[in-house]
Amino acid sequence: MYDRGVIRAAIAPALNSRLALAGGFACAVLACRPVNEASPETPPASQTIDTPHFAWPQWGGPRRDFHLPDIVLSPDWPPDGPPIVWTRPLGDGYSAIVSDDERLFTMYREAEEEVVVALSRENGATLWMHRYAAPIDFGDHPQGYGWGPRSTPLVLGDRLYAAGFNGVMHCLDRRDGRVIWRRDLIRDYAGTVNRWGYACSPLAWNDTIIMLVGGKGRSVVALDARDGRLRWGRHDFANSYASGKLIEAGGRVHLVCFMAREVVGLDPDNGARLWSHAHENQWLNNISDPVWGEGSLLFLSSEGDGGARVIELRASGPQITAGELWATRKVRISHRNAIRIGDFIYCTSGDFGPAFFTAVNVRDGTFAWRHRGYKESCLLALGDKLLVLDEDGWLSLATATPESLTIHARARLLEREAWTVPTVIGRRVYLRDRKTARAIELP
Are 192 and 238 in contact (CB under 8 A)? Predict the structure, then answer.
């Protein structure tokens, strides 16, 4: 039986040990199945990318939710901070670092080219590079934060999927960088040309790669993972900067898309609309990933007058309705992420004014506390602690509870703008800013 419409977290693409192999490519298989009533907050194994233990295959990590629940970290760091394993130069960009069991992958800009690069995990050495021309139209994309890639690659089977600043997407052989297929998402599907570039990170579903594009009639597209052909494209929503994610509602999987003026739930098999709810700000900048969790609650936030809101998804038979539980303009997340632990959302809130590290009750919007000691930051939940990287390059280890925020250790490891979410594999943390990549070892 299904859990009468209570929605369980399902926050990563489907790829499990029951892989269907075709020509060496791993195809994800996920079936709708009854909800496990015993642990509603834990995504089932079949809804994570099944990778070697030491891997980080996609935006947000193995479960696409910025959580590594099984790690145990010491609260004590050496006086000079965690040991630095290696440092290397890297070009401009904000693309996060992903990994298979052997290599690291990321993207950067160098002059008029974009580069997809594979690095050694042990010393940061370049293993292979794929370069391609990526000229910038300065009328569409003014200077301010650089023109480096925003999107984070996806490792899936023997392939790597990567999308650049202009929306040009490549499928590469992850072993040597050989091009398997290429698509221009903006040109091919008349997508939204955003001021600050294309930012959606690829999402795997069954044997497709889902991308948010913003084209008329093709606002969201699913591409065949093997050859890049269009499997489906639907809707007229303008695109913003967020990436798609999967949740489970009423016993079925929903594709959540945070578009320029709304958040929508689609059927990932064909793009059919299941529900939608309005959310926009004066710049149409919806960037931070929505946060899904127990109680059928979806938290979303953006800068400016968009503020934050929680939407409750309710199931009645096959129908899903999205109702607003609360909204506030006192929580404003620009392009960082938020973490939910229990009934509380933890985030740094603020756009052009002071930023507050904030704990807000996801059920009623009340504040537990607001801490002034941080600039805007990205977060990872590692076991019972938070790893926090602020935009000036300060990395902290903290414990956040509804009662307080405790800072255990802090060290400056990068330069401004350190906007990229760290990658954690074992106890090693991979970091980058707009000119440097660095590996450190946590105690």
Answer: yes
Query: pLDDT tens-digit profile of 410-440?
Result: 999 999 899 999 999 999 999 999 999 999 9
- Is pLDDT at 386 greater than 80 in this prediction? yes
Is 4 within the bounds of a domain? no
Peptide bond into 391 cis (omega under 30): no
Q: Which residue from 85, 141, 149, 145 is spatially nearest to 117, judged by alpha carbons?
A: 149
CA separation for the pair 303, 349 (Å, rounded): 9
Residue 202's domain comprises 20-441
CA dihedral sign of residues 103, 178, 155, 193: positive
Structural domains counted in the chain: 1
Which tens digits make up the pLDDT trace of 103-113? 999 999 999 99
Question: Which two tokens mark 373?
Answer: 């000691």
Q: Is the pLDDT of residue 47 over 60?
A: no
Residue 136 forms beta bridges with which residues?
A: none
Using one digit for the tens of pLDDT, what is the confidence trace for 123-146?
999 999 999 999 999 888 888 789
Contacts of 222 (CB under 8 A, 6+ apart): 205, 208, 209, 210, 230, 231, 232, 233, 268, 271
Q: What is the per-residue burial (b if ≥16 Cβ within 10 Å, else e) of 9-33?
A: bbbbbbbeeeeeeeeebbbbebeee
Beta pairing, strands 262-266 & 297-302 = unpaired
Query: What are the φ and ψ backbone dihedral angles of 189, each rounded to 5 degrees?
Result: -120, 20
Angle at 22 between CA 16 and CA 23, to 5 degrees: 130
How far apart are the C-alpha atoms of 380 and 219, rounded to whole Å?
30
Residue 8 resides in a domain: no
- How crowded is residue 138: how many other Cβ atoms within 10 Å of its Cβ? 9
pLDDT of 326 > 80? The answer is yes
What does the mean pLDDT of the chain come to? 88
Residue 232, domain member (yes or no): yes
**C-beta separation of 199 from 150 below 8 A:** yes
Amino acid letter for position 144: G
pLDDT in tens, 164-195: 999 999 999 999 999 999 999 999 999 999 99
Q: Are strands 377-382 and 67-68 parallel, antiparallel or unpaired?
A: parallel
The edge-to-edge listing of strands for the beta sheet with 339-341 is 339-341, 344-349, 356-361, 367-371
- Are 114 and 107 contacting, i.e. CB atoms less than 8 angstroms apart? yes
CATH assignment of the domain containing 368: 2.130.10.10
Please tell me the distance from the alpha carbon of residue 7 to that of residue 295, in angstroms, as a whole number. 7
Q: Which of 343, 313, 310, 338 is nearest to 326 (CA)?
A: 310
CA 138 to each of CA 103, 108, 111, 132, 175: distance values in angstroms, whole numbers, following the listed order: 34, 18, 14, 19, 35
